[in-house]
Amino acid sequence: MIINFQLILLRSILGSVNLLYMKRPTEKELITENKSNLYIPESSVLQKKYTLEEIAEIIPGIVHFNNIDNFGINFVNHYGEEKFDISLEEIVKEGAGFVYKFFEPGSLEIFSQPLIHMISENDDSKIISFFQKVRLNKKVVYNWLLTTSKILKGKKEFISISQVLSDVDSSTRAMTRLLDDNLYMRKNMKKFGNLTKREKQILRLVARGFSTRQIAEQLYLSKYTVSTHRKNISRKLDFKSVIDWEHFANAFEL
Fold it and tell me: Is the pTM of this model over 0.85?
């Protein structure tokens, strides 16, 4: 086996980055490190020291190269294969379909706008960071990723480094809850706009645990009127349980 001492040296240099994971990095630290690491592959390839694939294996996080035209993944490092629980060959075979299969549709449409804008500008000097929500290890539950991307010079690809937010510090994990609420609010903004002022009042009171009789007394309405409003709200918002009422009310600060 041929030992590449230069690659070993580079790995030791990046060791300081790996120490961040022992200290549970914050979102700001992750973005800073990701941006710094995105410059390493290009400079190394331009100097003909290493291949992109070699560099990708030693950079912390899920490193992947995507086709600019359809966002299909051309390469993902071994860490990425482990996280997605799928081989590179299978990912490449999926093409653009992989993105739509593993990425949560709502977050993909909303949070990937900076990436789409960067691609449309075709600016290979620009580095952007954004959030994505994906399924890892073939589980049903989606995980938030903090992704930093850059177009590769002279190529029809962009390189990205993604970090799983649930793997980092408590403040960043708390941020994932805010992201979930933000995404939920954006998805339901139109429904919220279709509610009348009276329906919003009743929704807030139901979410706070008041009964139909108590709501009727507070708003000087009949129980039958309140009951009708509750049915209309459930129909408009497709509520299935009291938890849905609470989630909606909290998201829109009712």
Answer: no
